[in-house]
Amino acid sequence: MKNQEPFQTLFFFFSTLLLLSFSSAQGKCPPSFLCGNLGTMYFPYTDTKHPHCGLLVMHGCDDRDPDAVKTIKNNGEWFFITRDPNTNALVFRDDELRTYLLTRSCGVFEKNYTSLDTPSPFLSLHFTTATLFICNRTLNINPPSSAFYKSTICPKEDIFYGTSNVDESFSYYSEELHGSYFEQCSMVRLPIRDAELVPNSNGSLFDYVSADIPVKIEVSDECSSCYRLRRGQCQLDS
């Protein structure tokens, strides 16, 4: 019986992957769609006219004004969608975070981007973040200055972040280190402008954090195979 378990598991997984035929996909799902000033869009994006034809539904594409606001709802929050003028890549804009940054509000550090949850298990969104520890000032936290910068831009909290770039610093934040220095603090991850431009203690975290988030879209191998090779759409069987 144990030898059959992997096959049962494999059968269950593929039974959840609904593969629509090429004729069905071609008839109901266009290969691309126009979305105002964003130009021509492709899978995994789709528009509100064909919400089942993609994994990320874009709103505002059918507005007669090409410059009308384009949005995506993700994890209960709305993101404005723009393009980076330098790279032409799509950018997710968190308008609430942007307001906090423009007004220099410490509400910035109440946000937490551990991940951008997606509506599908076939889709992942990747973006660059920095890890910060928010500590009540009365705790008098003093981690090694060689490893952490300290910011006092908020009236009641000290904010600590790594002196190295984000990729190295996040791996450096082991559970042991967190427990040693920051067990009474909160840890947040926030999107940043440039991983190579870590501000020192005299710099401003408000200029380091970014509300415009370049997002790399990654579709699972199973879904890519379904869509590109078999010319079908992938979605969970409900």
Descriptive notes:
Strands 6-7-8-14 form a 4-stranded antiparallel beta sheet. Strands 11-12-10-13 form a 4-stranded antiparallel beta sheet, with helices on one face. The protein has a two-stranded antiparallel ribbon with strand order 1-16. With 238 residues, it is an alpha+beta fold. The chain is built from 7 helices and 16 strands. It folds into 2 domains: 20-105 and 216-232, no CATH class; 129-210, no CATH class. The radius of gyration is 22 Å and the shape is elongated.
Quick structural summary:
The chain is 23% helix and 29% strand. It has 238 residues and is an alpha+beta fold.
Topology (elements, then pairings):
Elements: H1 5-16, E1 17-19, H2 22-28, E2 32-34, E3 40-42, E4 45-47, E5 56-58, E6 71-74, E7 77-83, E8 90-93, H3 95-102, E9 123-126, E10 129-136, E11 148-151, E12 157-162, H4 166-172, H5 175-181, E13 186-191, H6 205-208, E14 212-214, E15 216-219, H7 221-229, E16 234-236
Which structural traits does this protein have?
4-stranded antiparallel β-sheet; 2 domains; 238 residues; 29% strand; alpha+beta
Q: What is the share of helical residues?
A: 10-25%
Using only CA atoms, what is the Rg?
A: 22 Å
Q: What coarse outline follows from CA principal-axis ratios?
A: elongated
Taken as a percent bin, the fraction of beta residues is 25-35%
| Integer average pLDDT | 78
H and E string: HEHEEEEEEEHEEEEHHEHEEHE
Number of strands: 16
User: Distance between termini?
Assistant: 29 Å
Largest sheet entry: 4 strands, antiparallel
Count of separate DSSP helical elements = 7
